[in-house]
Amino acid sequence: MRWGLVGASTIAAEHMVGALRGGGQDVHVVQSATAARASRFASDFGITAHETDLAAVISDADIGAVYISSTNEKHHGQALAAIAAGKHVLCEKPLAMTVAEAAEMVAAASAQGVVFATNHHLRCSGSHRAVRDLITSGRIGRVLSVRLFHAVHLPGHLQGWRIDSPEAGGGVIPDITVHDADVARFLTGEDPVSVVAEMVSSGMGKGVEDSVMSVWTLPSGAMVMAHESFTHAFAGSGLEVHGTEGSIFAQGVMTQQPVGDVALVTASGRESVPFATHNLYGQAVADFLSAVAGRGRPAADGRDGIASLAVALAVRRAAQTGVRQMVDYGGTV
Ligand code: NDP
Fold first, then answer.
1. CATH for the 123-278+309-326 domain, from 3.40.50.1820, 3.30.360.10, 1.10.10.10, 3.40.718.10
2. pTM score above 0.85
3. 273 C-alpha to center of ligand 1: Å?
4. Which atom of ligand 1 lies nearest, measured to the CA of 70?
5. What is the pLDDT of residues 215-263, one digit of tens each?
6. How many CA atoms lie within 13 A of 171 on its CB side?
7. Which of 6, 104, 253, 269 gives 20 to 30 Å between its CA and that of 89?
């Protein structure tokens, strides 16, 4: 399929152009608001065409799908335009600035009959899929709690709008908490009901939070504890899932690479859990292409993107108000 890139972004450069091409896709055109940036990106990646005008990309009947990786406030308008033009859409997280906007995007795609997916890469990893398999096969019994450790150090080349622009959707909550919300939902199959949270700007964030800790309650009564940050250089990352019959410890797995260690501890002792080490973004593309071909669904669909955003925004509201918040899924649950 022929693709248009909407946004000349770092994630497209570092991961998605390769993942799309690895899946046999034709990355034909890149659109950027800045002509020089579009031209340089096209030249750097051997992309045939470059545009500043999105309309020029989506009016091309040969373009079957777009990958949207602009700054967060642009996703909504760009996705609606692409959907209206009949393109399948793989959209970066967070889907939008509000749950209502995200729901509008997903509803538009459904009405138009195009595939719409959210690029939540972590659920594409072999490690997370192995953890989920342990849970669904009953190896740890009933899930009691999940702990998500995702406090990292934001690399210098990403310290732009993320740390100083609320208007562009900056802050660690829209950046990383959305991923953790998706992880918790993916592993447990549950939509968090309510959250409490605290957030701070601890030196990197200017006008946005750079660190947050929160606790979520699931419908089953299980609890999730999540920690996201831009400022922790040495913390490492990971997740734990604790159940009535065992615990899962996954270290170094909240990452873009297929790395880390997964272990299961039960009454029988501790065992190392093998997992597949495929490219996370390549898996997202493969699942998207299957959905376009009418086989199955994307790894994370539009509903998943609405839900992860809803949880993240509830976390921010809880931290702002100091009051426990019910998660508002905008009527989509
Ligand atoms: P970038 O900051 O690299 O790019 C986002 C947009 O900002 C670009 O499309 C470009 O806009 C503009 N831009 C970037 N650099 C410059 C510059 N030097 N000068 C002027 N404009 C610039 O963003 P990321 O790649 O980090 O993130 C893009 C999206 O992808 C976000 O929504 C983010 O949340 C998501 N993301 C997802 C990840 C995942 O694993 N799923 C990982 C990382 C990001 P334009 O093209 O219009 O000129």
1. 3.30.360.10
2. yes
3. 35
4. 9
5. 999 999 999 999 999 999 999 999 999 999 999 999 999 999 999 999 9
6. 23
7. 253
